[in-house]
Please model this.
Amino acid sequence: MDVIKKLFAQKLMDIKAIKLQPNEPFTWASGWKSPIYTDNRRTLGFADVRSFVKLELCHAIQKYFHEAEAVAGVATGAIAQGALVADELGLPYAYVRPKPKDHGMGNQVEGELKKGAKVIVVEDLISTGGSSLKAVEALRQYGVEVIGMVASFTYGFPIAEQAFKDAGVQLITLSDYAAVLEQAAETGYIKEEEIEILKEWRRDPAAWKA
Model:
């Protein structure tokens, strides 16, 4: 498994950005019951982790999307991360709201991007992929070319993988659910008998019951 994926998974667990509670599941906004909760915003509060995320996202962009001419962050979770990445790369930056403002200029894309520019999108977390791909569509309507997306973490749901494929968007992430499970098991972060619970949830999260 990719060294960066495992390293970042450990960093997320160290700062409690990832919490695993198979026996006391969380309730997501969607109503799903989940044994895992991920809050990548916590990385902003730890200088070393914040710098790690910034630099590794930049490395991913330079490796897979070196032709990027601008950066766009997805509100609200990736606004700060996107700005850090754009600053490090010396590229123009904008962020994308979930929907246009209902006052003022009515903007959905905040910032300034040249029409036709090759834009890389920065996201913090991929679950079903719905909100992330809405941002992609907003950018396309704005008049730029989305060349891909980089994100801190993905659950790797098949529904999300298919959605990105259908939208024609290449997704690169620093870590994922499989890496978290592997690292959590190796370090004793969770008990061995809890691993199967976590794998079962991943197979069908919508129908899973604690």
User: Anything to note?
Assistant: The chain is about 40% helix and 20% strand. Strands lie at 18-20, 26-27, 33-34, 36-38, 70-74, 93-96, 109-111, 118-126, 145-154, 171-176. The mean pLDDT is 93. The CA atoms of residues 4 and 129 lie 22 Å apart.
